[in-house]
Write a structure and sequence with these properties.
The protein contains 19 helices and 15 strands. It is of the alpha+beta class. β4 and β5 form a beta hairpin.
């Protein structure tokens, strides 16, 4: 009964179990075949040398095993290299016990546990852990492990941007590095990511050793570490990147403002395809920016011929120089109307690449051109009118000269007739005896006729418009050599009245000195000749 029980226990064991006497096999259980590939009966009576790859290993196991059994009834030894029937090498953990109280007959029971697979797994785990640590340490991103809210591992990069060495943070609470105002947000985003409700990295502010704020971008995943749940975190310090991005955003806003403040349409073209436009394109062409982006510039031309012609002119020039300018070219507005634009194209780069990238500005000069055309037309009209006026002026000058000549002829005729026909008659009348009144009127008539035919009155009245009519008559008679008494008799005024008028005339003529002779001055006025005028006719 006892033998049957022992046999059942041996056969139920998953490990190869041998009974040895002086290292020869006296029994073996069924597990021997699974571990070594030998059937139990094939090994009975054979030396255990068959179970080892070398004699040296065989000797080492025997020496260490029996030496230990001298002092202990049961010995658990570490792993040894063993050999299967097919020659394959396996690793076995040996445990042994002596049969009886002594090793006199060297009888022992030895169990071989195949731990080859366990060793392989452990090796892989060690290799995997080493590989992971090497990768983690070589990352340009922070990698750290959190368990129970504390750091269990950090790579050098994660610790460095916080201003620490890894060992300084191990065991410390992870949330201490998070800015107090962002801790709630970080916990929320981390939970969402751990539960699969968030896939995008989240940003938050961290506080480094110097109490300076920095921006971290982070992702988390749940793992099992040392048999318990943990959180694996990958993070990146994006402080400089974020600052650069903010500066770029500010620059983009500034650039956008500049572009939008420009009244010209500005387009970025690649091989005549519209990649970017500013908002002013709507005021020039009527199209909204989103309606043009991605389309060919063909839609801006009136016809295919204009589109091809502009392409040939612009690109042939830009092959040689960086800038191409066209003072005016016809384009098409969204409403179909033709518009004139002044364009300036600048190539991007030192030469035209295969993409033929350009920056082009378009200035709508349609109204300006209309004004210029209207001004040109008006100038032509004014030139014609000026020519007509010049011809009219010439004709008027001819007429005026003719009228002056006619006037001179009339005046000459009047003077000649008065001098030759009337004055002689008056002179004859004065020779006959007549009353004083008649003589007075004859003299007065002679004086008036002299006024009519003489240019003196006209000249004096023109030069001295402030002389009264009476003063002009006195001046005329003084010029003719009449005395004050004679003038008084002719004008029916007293000699004293004549002297008064003489005084007024001298004052008005600016003759301050009494030594200046009034008659001489009046004669000088009479002797002046007007342009184109003959000498005044002397009336005797």
């Amino acid at each position: 009964m006892i033998n049957d029980l022992a046999s059942s226990i041996l056969d139920a064991s998953p490990h190869a179990t041998f009974g040895l006497e002086d290292r020869r096999i006296i029994f073996a259980n069924f597990a021997v075949e699974r571990v070594f590939g030998w059937k139990p009966q094939e090994l009975l009576g054979r030396s255990t040398m068959v179970l080892y790859p070398t004699e040296k290993e065989y000797e080492r196991v025997g020496r260490e095993l029996y030496s230990a059994l001298e002092n202990e009834p049961v010995v658990l030894k570490s792993a040894y290299q063993c050999k299967r029937k097919d020659g394959g090498i396996i690793t076995c953990r040996l445990s042994s016990s002596k049969i009886g109280d002594s090793l006199t007959n060297r009888k022992v029971v030895v169990t071989y546990e195949d731990i080859s697979e366990i060793n392989r797994i452990e090796s892989r785990l060690i290799e995997s852990e080493n590989l992971y640590r090497n990768l983690a340490e070589g990352f340009f991103a922070g990698v750290y492990l959190i368990q129970d809210g504390k750091f269990k591992y950090l790579n050098k990069y994660a610790a460095s941007y916080m201003g620490y060495e890894p060992h300084e943070l191990i065991g410390k609470k992870a949330h201490n590095i998070v800015h107090p105002e962002d801790r709630t947000k970080v916990m929320k985003y981390a939970k969402q990511m751990l539960h699969g409700k968030r896939t995008n990295p989240y940003l938050y502010r961290a506080v480094n050793r110097k109490a300076e704020n920095l921006w971290l971008m982070e992702m988390v995943t749940s793992i099992i570490f040392e048999g318990r749940p943990a959180i694996l975190v990958t993070s990146m310090d994006i402080t400089e990147l974020r600052e650069a991005r903010l500066k770029i955003e500010e620059f983009d806003k500034l650039r956008s403002s500049i572009l939008d403040a420009t009244p010209y349409a500005i387009m970025y073209l690649e091989d005549r395809k519209i990649i970017f436009v500013n908002n002013a394109v709507e005021s020039v062409f009527g199209w909204k920016p989103k309606e043009l982006i991605g389309n060919s510039t063909r839609m801006l031309f009136l016809c295919d011929l204009d589109y091809k012609r502009m392409g040939q002119m612009a690109y042939s020039t830009l092959e040689k120089t960086r800038i191409y300018e066209e003072p005016e070219f016809l384009y098409k507005h969204k409403n179909g109307e033709a518009i004139f634009c002044r364009i300036k194209a600048v190539r991007i780069g030192e030469a035209l690449q295969h993409s033929r990238s350009l920056i082009v500005t378009y200035e709508n000069i349609t109204e300006q051109k209309k004004i210029q055309d209207a001004l040109l037309q008006r100038t032509k009209e004014l030139e014609l009118k000026t020519h007509d006026l010049e011809e009219t002026n010439i004709a008027l000058n001819v007429i005026m000269r003719k009228r002056e000549a006619d006037k001179f002829e009339i005046e000459e005729s009047v003077v000649r007739n008065v001098s030759e026909l009337i004055i002689p008659c008056i002179e004859q009348m004065k020779k006959y005896r007549m009353s004083n009144d008649a003589l007075k009127y004859a003299l007065l008539l002679e004086s008036h006729l002299a006024h009519i035919v003489s240019p003196f009155l006209h000249k004096v009245s023109t030069k001295h418009l402030n002389l009264t009519h009476k003063e002009l008559l006195v001046a005329s008679l003084l010029k003719d050599g009449k005395s004050s008494k004679e003038i008084g008799d002719l004008l029916n005024i007293s000699s004293r009245g004549v002297d008064y008028h003489r005084s007024k005339i001298r004052k008005k003529l600016g003759m301050k000195s009494k030594q200046d002779n009034l008659r001489s001055y009046l004669l000088s006025c009479f002797s002046d000749k007007a342009p184109g005028e003959e000498s005044a006719v002397k009336i005797v």
